[in-house]
Structure formats: structure tokens, C-alpha cells
Amino acid sequence: MPKFEIDDYLDINPDEFLIQCSDKEIKDVIDILITEGHIDKKDHIDGFGTKKNIFDTVFGDIMTKLRENRLKITNDDMEGILSILKKY
After folding, report:
1. For the chain, how many structural domains are there in total?
2. Distance linking the first and last C-alpha atoms of the chain
3. pTM score, two decimals?
4. Do 56 and 81 fall within a single domain?
5. Cα 73 vs. chain centroid, distance in angstroms?
6. Cβ(51)–Cβ(45) under 8 Å?
7. In which domain, by residue range, is 35 found?
8. What angle do CA 23, 27, 33 make, to 5 degrees?
9. Do 29 and 5 reside in the same domain of the chain?
10. Helical segments of the chain, H only
11. Does residue 73 sit within a domain?
């Protein structure tokens, strides 16, 4: 775990902390953020531990917007979404 010198009060920015973390510690932080619901596991890394490409990122952003607006979706919109899903 990162070590910092302190006199009286410790004020560490998140980026300062993360820069000092090992790869394993970063993975632990990500696991904590997923567990606490701050990030969705599918949104940061694929199942093989590789970073998403731009197409995955754009598609993920679209799905996030759709999820955030789910209560505003009309019946017609839902039928359209379901018809798209039926193709696959």
C-alpha cells in the first residue's frame, strides 16, 4: 500500500494515491468501486483484462444513456428496442 509522510494532517488527492499504487492495488480499488456500485464492471475492462476499444466505449456510452432514461421510454420506443433485440 502507498506510504505518505505526514506531520499533522494528511490531505491526499485521489490521483496522488493512485499513482503510488501497484497494479494489484489498483485492481483492488477497482473491485471496491464495483462492489460499492460506483462503476459497472462492464464499463471499464472486458473479461480478459484488456482495455475497451473506441467502438466498445461509444456503445457503452449509448447503453448508459439508455439506462439512465429508462423511465422516459415510451411503449413505442420499447417496441423498437425489442424489435432490434429480436434480430440477434
Report:
1. 2
2. 46
3. 0.42
4. yes
5. 24
6. yes
7. 1-39
8. 145
9. yes
10. 14-20, 23-35, 54-68, 75-86
11. yes
